[in-house]
User: Fold this.
Amino acid sequence: MKRSFALVAFLVGCSSAFGFITNGSFENGQVHGPGGPNFNIGGVPAPWTMTSYSPDTYDNTGADGWDLNGIPPYNNMMQGVSAYHGVRFVGFAASPSFGGIAEAFGQQVTGLQIGKRYRVSAATITDNLGRAAPYGGPYTGFGDIDVYYNSQYIGSLLANTLSLTWQVRWFEFTALSTSGFMEYVMVTQGPQPSQPSYRGIDAVEVVPEPMTMLVLGAGVAALMRRRNRA
Ligand SMILES: [Ca+2]
Assistant:
């Protein structure tokens, strides 16, 4: 009976929010710390941290692209885009300009089980309409997002196929350590000469692979039936 409760607690815990990711929808916290704005160039809310250049947080409650931030060349980037979940999402770029940039961000993940399989997923959206030429653009490509766990490449959220349309992308991997830094790296659309790509991301999740969940769910059901018969 105790075991069944533990399993139920585990399942409930994973089905809420975004699994092992905290603030996976970027809805909580100030982008630039206490007292800072909710929207600005170069900022992601905690516990996310920027690891390369400056991913940008968009907030649909007060922003349309980056024009409100006073950078006219970015005017209309992601114009008219609403967040996939809530009111915020993060956008980041990859470009051969400036010697090659691949913006990235991530957070520490804990509580994984070694040898278990997990699904990494997110909703993503690509602005490939050729904007922001002075800032690494014009962005015309559909780049992947490469994901690293403890600095090891574990898979990619493959490129979108539609312009300015949210599409869910995912892959699965086997955890080789219980905790580590999960990093999301924007990449250009290859091959060389690669095309600059700018992509939004929201509803970032890391959850046990659905097959594992089904097996655990069946186990819980069996335990419940056994308990009810007792
Ligand atoms: Ca969101």
In short: The longest strand covers residues 197-208.
